[in-house]
Specification:
Elements (H helix, E strand, L loop, with lengths): L4 E3 L8 H17 L6 E4 L1 H9 L8 H16 L12 E6 L10 E5 L3 H11 L2 H19 L4 H15 L9 H19 L7 H14 L4 H10 L8 E6 L10 E8 L6 E9 L3 H6 L5 E2 H7 L1 H18 L3 E8 L2 E9 L4 H13 L5 H7 L2 H7 L3 E2 L1 H6 L2 E4 L1 E4 L2 E7 L2 H9 L4 E5 L7 H6 L2 E4 L7 H9 L3 E3 L5 E3 L4 E4 L2 E4 L3 E5 L4 E4 L4 E2 L7 H13 L3 E5 L3 H9 L5 E4 L15 H26 L5 H15 L2 H27 L4 E5 L12 H14 L3 H17 L11 H6 L3 H18 L5 E6 L5 H21 L8 E6 L2 H5 L1 H7 L2 E4 L1 H9 L6 H11 L16 H15 L4 E4 L7 H9 L4 E4 L4 H14 L5
Parallel strand pairs: 14-15, 15-16, 16-17, 24-25, 24-31, 25-26, 26-27, 27-28, 28-29, 29-30, 30-31
Antiparallel strand pairs: 1-2, 2-5, 3-4, 3-5, 6-7, 6-9, 7-8, 9-10, 11-23, 12-22, 13-17, 14-21, 18-19, 19-20, 21-22
Helix pairs in contact: 4-5, 5-6, 5-7, 6-7, 11-12, 13-14, 13-15, 13-20, 14-20, 15-36, 20-36, 21-24, 22-23, 22-24, 24-28, 25-26, 28-29, 31-34, 35-36
Magnesium ion (MG) binds next to helix 32.
């Protein structure tokens, strides 16, 4: 028969799927020789069988549990209901993946009237025993029987009120005894039967409750958000109780073996004397920080330190542990890999590698792209903070800057968040029931609770800012407001919280970026990532400032320098670039056809007839005013572009710069049609400026002639170069002249010229031929023929991908423009679809993800792979990269690695993420020997 129950002595940490994280670790810690209260674990598989059977114990389970109870009674020399050594246990959930606070726990199980009397005799501590009993009744009624916890706490509150005290520990022994009696009375009233006295009845019901708690709405919501499989199930751990509330030489605590907040070394955690574990988390009394324990009880601190070292050495990761001190004896209740902030994750990974606990590869693997994203997230602008109204200061529970509207309830937060609003969830303290609202909030502010309170733990896990235990604020949940000093913050008012400092500000405080150069641990981790990765990481940048920034972030070149903006005006320039572009377009009506004809004739000058035709046309063209103006306009733009390239080449000294020639539809350079129509109509009505009217009418007629139904599929990309003679030649001349200039000045320059939107080899050939001529001429004139450059193309059109073998005959490199390639492969307009239907499709599961963010491997990806393979058949050393938005997205980067690209190129801010993701790809799918 299937084994469903394992003693802690039987399992190990590899058995997480079956025993849950907690169970597997309790077993592992037992074998490590740590002081663990013994017990046994019922498997996760049993939870699923229990669920499948509609909430019934599978056959044989109870008998197996009883056998393990017997073993436990032997190991502990205690017995349920015993008159000399009564056994009390905890019954806890424990899924394979930690779901903090999501499922149920029953403590002090086994307590009843008789056991209470026995324990009083044994310990002589009536207060402790009645307190344990009242806690058990509360938990059992709430968790196991589904009664209102509030009602039971109400019984205790009434006694406190009658005694005129507020703290739990201030209640008299008699008061505690009365509380127990009151709770039992209430139970009978609500359930119609006495509070169960038989520990076996209690145990059976508690196990069922733990299994049932796997399927509560809050647990389901949490799993959905975290992407945890519903089929995983939870294990159920039955463990001997040890008591932190047996007097002031007892206590309960939580400790992280390193700081989960910033990763620094040393114990981090809290300890509450004379209290049970739940008191620490609930924030009922303010716990002592472990750093204070160091001074007050150095021996105990040392013992904890030794344990921390043992478990870290064993688990090779930062651990989050719960412990109890029972009358001076230290017990470890659980250990698990500690959740941590991004900063902490990075520091711990790097430090552990430097300490030799893990290798560099493991360290790099432990840092997630999300960690970097979060670390480099904006923080508040110090100047703006200086000016902002500081409302209060709480605990800096989870770092980061968040701005949002104050919302006082989780459901409303969910509503606002889903409507796209920024929300700060403000609660007295959060509970797992608030998770739906927490998911959509920018950050959390709580009035109570410490660094290990629910809000703090969840915030750190999710990388959201949190200020906890902000006791200065007074929340009035009935009126949905809080007051602090003279201020009243109503629901919907703007708040800004700084989770790194615990500050709470009124209104919206401006944010700034994190200073990457100060993040030494991250920089170190990324250096390791660079050693590992196979892919190059370039950047998309089109000005010197972005190029410098991208280099700081670790980019090793520019994979896409868009040149569109070089046709628009820039501050401080005397001649308008834009006016010259407009002039060029206007004159192109006459000039372009004639120049194209000349270009065509130029190809057959050997034929005397053609030569004569050429000469005649050339003479005509040379004296044509429109052609003169057309050429002059291009000439005027050239020096500007040359100086733009000089700045970029200088910033990218030593690295390649891939410059994409003009790409957008030409009408984008002209005034909008509607605007012109209005102007023409006005001029016509007024009738006082016939000259301007004529000019505008002509401009309007050109705009109308350029009008396209589908401009993204129209006269753009290399097509513009082919239709406007001299346009891309001017750009190439600017690029090469700039290259020559900087090279003379000692810059190591590597220009690559990229032709956009190629669909047919003939387009490529035609552009390539004329551009090469220009480039060669510049180099020859400068006597710099050894300056290496390349001419290649973007792959943005499926036809280009399909005919890559032909295109590679001419193109010296490929770069996937996956924005257009996705648009054209899906036949979905990238400018319109996301807002209109695409995200809805993703929500409905029609598409697994937004294909403009994550590469669609099956469709677009398949084309890419075919293209790489075909291109390299023709040209084995063909350099292939990606410069669409996907180049900075981790899963797309993995795919690019898999299909053998040479590099990814992304915006400067995503460069660090791309470096890490590229290393992860190599670690998961090694390409290097
Ligand atoms: C692309 O299409 O992926 C690309 C990089 O070009 P753009 O986004 O400028 O069209
Ligand atoms: Mg494109």
């Amino acid at each position: 028969m299937e084994k469903r129950v394992y003693d802690f002595t039987e399992g190990n940490k590899e058995m997480k799927a079956l025993l849950g994280g907690k169970g597997a670790n309790l077993a592992e810690m037992t074998s490590l020789g740590l002081n663990i209260p013994q017990g046994f674990t019922i498997t996760t598989k049993t939870c699923n069988d229990f669920m499948d059977a509609g909430g019934k114990f599978p056959e044989g389970l109870w008998e197996e549990v009883l056998e393990h109870v017997e073993t436990l009674e032997k190991t502990t020399s205690k017995k349920f209901n015993d008159l000399e050594a009564p056994l009390l246990v905890s019954v806890r959930s424990g899924a394979p993946i930690s779901m903090p606070g999501m499922m149920d726990t029953v403590l002090n199980m086994g307590m009843n009237d008789q056991v209470a009397e026995t324990m009083i005799k044994l310990t002589g501590d009536e207060r402790f025993v009645w307190d344990a009993y009242r806690r058990f009744i509360t938990m059992f009624s709430d968790v196991v029987m589904g009664l209102e916890r509030h009602d039971y706490e109400g019984v205790f509150d009434k006694i406190k009120e009658a005694e005129g005290v507020s703290g739990d520990t201030d209640v008299s022994v008699n008061g505690l005894k009365e509380t127990v009696a009151g709770m039992k009375y209430l139970y009978k009233e609500q359930m119609g039967v006495d509070f169960p006295q038989d520990p076996m009845d209690q145990l059976r019901a508690s196990i069922a409750a733990v299994f049932n708690s796997w399927d509560t709405p809050r647990a389901r919501t949490y799993r959905k958000f975290e992407g945890i499989d519903d089929k995983m199930g939870t294990a159920c751990n039955i463990q001997t109780m040890v008591f932190g509330n047996m007097g002031w030489d007892s206590g309960s605590g939580v400790m992280f073996t390193r700081s989960p907040s910033d990763g620094s070394k040393g114990l981090f955690g809290e300890l509450l004397f004379n209290a049970q574990g739940e008191d620490v988390v609930a924030g009922i009394r303010t716990p002592m920080h472990l750093s204070d324990l160091h001074d007050q009880q150095p021996d105990l601190y040392k013992e904890l330190e030794n344990i921390a070292e043992t478990v870290e050495e064993h688990y090779k990761d930062m651990q989050d542990m719960e412990f109890t001190i029972e009358q001076g004896k230290l017990w470890i209740l659980q250990t698990r890999t500690g959740k941590r902030t991004a900063r902490s994750a990075i520091m711990i990974a790097v430090d552990m590698a430097e300490e030799g606990l893990i290798d560099k590869e493991t360290a790099v693997k432990r840092i997630t792209p999300g960690n970097i994203d979060q670390l480099l997230h904006p923080q508040f602008d110090p100047a703006a903070k200086e000016e902002a109204v500081l409302l209060a200061k709480g605990l800096n529970a989870s770092p980061g800057a968040a701005v949002g509207k104050a919302i006082f309830n989780a459901d409303r937060a969910e509503e606002h968040g889903k409507a796209g609003e920024q929300v700060i969830l403000v609660r007295p303290e959060t509970t797992p029931d608030d998770v739906n609202g927490m998911i959509v909030s920018q950050g959390f502010l709580t009035q109570h609770g410490g660094g290990t309170s629910h809000a703090a733990v969840v915030a750190r896990g999710w990388g959201k800012p949190c200020v906890a235990g902000c006791e200065d604020i007074r929340i009035d949940n009935n009126r949905n407001l809080f007051t602090v000093g003279e201020h009243t913050i109503n629901e919907g008012d703007w708040l800004s919280i700084d989770g790194a400092t615990g500050e709470v500000f009124l209104g919206q405080v401006a944010k700034i970026e994190t200073a990457f150069e100060k993040e030494t641990k991250l920089i170190k981790a990324l250096e390791w990532a660079d050693e590992i990765k196979h892919l190059g990481v370039l950047t998309n940048a089109d000005n010197p400032e972005d190029s410098v920034k991208a280099r700081q972030f670790g980019a090793t070149g520019i994979g896409l320098c868009r040149t569109e903006h070089m046709f628009f005006d820039q501050e401080g320039e005397e001649i308008s670039r834009r006016e010259n572009v407009v002039e060029m377009i206007l004159k192109s009506e006459v000039a372009a056809p004639m120049l194209r004809q000349l270009e065509a004739l130029e190809l057959s000058l050997d034929d005397p007839e053609k030569k004569a035709e050429y000469d005649a046309l050339k003479a005509k063209a040379d004296s044509n005013e429109d052609i003169k103006k057309y050429k002059k306009a291009l000439e005027n733009i050239l020096p500007f572009q040359r100086s733009d390239f000089v700045g970029i080449f200088e910033a990218m000294d030593g690295y390649p710069v891939i410059v994409r020639l003009i790409d957008p539809p030409m009408h984008e350079f002209l005034p909008p049609r509607e605007e012109l129509l209005e102007e023409v109509t006005m001029l016509r009505c007024k009738g006082d400026n016939p000259e301007e009217l004529k000019e505008k009418e002509y401009l309007l007629s050109v705009v109308e002639s350029l009008w396209e139904t589908n401009p993204m599929l129209g006269l753009r990309g290399c097509r513009a170069g082919l239709m406007y003679p001299g346009l891309t030649e001017m750009q190439v001349q600017a690029i090469m002249e700039a290259a020559v200039e900087v090279k003379k000045a000692g810059v190591d320059v590597h220009p690559e010229i990229m032709i956009p939107l190629t669909s047919h080899i003939n387009e490529m050939k035609a552009e390539h031929e004329k551009l090469k001529k220009v480039a060669e001429k510049v180099l020859k004139d400068a006597d710099m023929e050894n300056l290496k450059y390349k001419i290649g193309t973007m792959i943005e059109i499926p036809r280009a991908a399909l005919t890559a073998d032909e295109i590679a005959e001419t193109a010296e490199f490929f770069s996937f423009g996956t924005n257009d390639l996705t648009q054209m492969t899906f036949g979905i307009s990238r400018d319109d679809a996301e807002g209109k239907f695409l995200l809805n499709f993703v929500d409905r599961g029609l598409l697994p993800s937004n294909p403009f963010q994550v590469i669609d491997r099956e469709g677009v990806g398949k084309l890419m792979k075919m293209c790489v393979d075909a291109g390299r058949k023709t040209r084995p050393d063909l350099e292939v990269g990606i410069c669409g938005e996907h180049g900075g997205e981790p899963s797309s980067i993995e795919f690019c690695h898999q299909i053998g690209l040479n590099y990814v190129s992304c915006s400067p801010y995503r460069v660090p993420i791309a470096r890490l993701a590229a290393a992860h790809a190599e670690l998961d799918y090694p390409k290097k020997k």
